[in-house]
Predict the 3D structure of the following.
Amino acid sequence: MIALYPGSFDPITRGHLDIIERGCRLFDQVVVVVFQNSSKKPLFPVTQRLDQIRRSTTHLPNLEVDSFDGLTVTYAQIRQATVLLRGLRAISDFEFELQMAHTNKTLATDLETVFLATSTEYSFLSSSVVKEIARFGGPIDHLVPPAVVLDIRKCYAKNPIGSALTAEDSVRLTPEAPPTGCRPMPPGSAG
């Protein structure tokens, strides 16, 4: 049975990773699908988000990472997936996700949505929270997988509010490894 875990993953968080790992225990194959959300201005381009997810999930043999621009149900039909995997943090998530599940069911009657309650330690976590903390130079190591920390810090290194780079990160940054594709958020936008 193939399950899709769709999202923007900008960036992938430890909460996302928790849902991915648990999904991989429940289903034969999980496909993390990065979608472009036209209503958001992403910090990272799709190609970099795909790379971040791949680097964060090398320990999961039944996981695939892909991108798609279109309806989730269309991608599910192409891949012959029968399950959409979704994480729930709070009641507000449930209302939105239930509406999406009902909408998807009208488009593809054979597609089921499975909700996983977010683990308690990640119930507050979102990509927007990570970006806001990083923008002000706060610690993010406990919020995102190690493969993503340096990418985020590079994006905010030129931030006039304060650098999110640590001393050890500065040593690892070289002219050969400039920040790729990231777009720091302007002040006051949580993304």
In short: The beta strands are 2-7, 29-35, 63-68, 83-88, 112-117.
